[in-house]
Amino acid sequence: MNHADLSRVLRHAASATPPMAAAPLESAIMARVRVDDGRARRWRSFVRWLLIATTASGLGAACLVGWSQASRDKTHSRPPVMSLFQEGTP
After folding, report:
1. Are the C-beta atoms of 22 and 13 separated by less than 8 Å?
2. Is the distance from CB of 29 to CB of 9 less than 8 angstroms?
3. pTM, whole model, 2 decimals?
4. Which of 26, 72, 73, 83 is most buried, most CB within 10 Å of its CB?
5. d(CA 45, CA 42)
6. DSSP per position, 60-90
7. CA dihedral 76, 77, 83, 88 (to 10 degrees)
8. How far, in Å, CA of 35 to CA of 41, rounded?
9. pLDDT in tens, 20-48
10. Are the C-beta atoms of 1 and 30 separated by less than 8 Å?
11. How many CB atoms are located within 10 Å of the residue 11 CB?
């Protein structure tokens, strides 16, 4: 139930019922709002944890791929040959 629905229900409740019958209707409406608020909080929590889990698994996969590529790279295992130290050789 969003804000527009709640406003419509409350306007309808205020105009359609006599003042004596408004109290039970108001308590029923507020109970529905509390249930909907709890459902919305659970949904937000689920989405938040889903995003956290997705981000963590993405970072984990990126780290694993980076480590795998770096462990296979042999570019820096031997220092490069420098011409400065090879002046005497023809």
Report:
1. yes
2. yes
3. 0.49
4. 26
5. 5
6. HHHHHHHHHHHHH--TTSSPPP-GGGGTT--
7. 170
8. 10
9. 666 777 788 888 877 777 788 889 999 99
10. no
11. 10
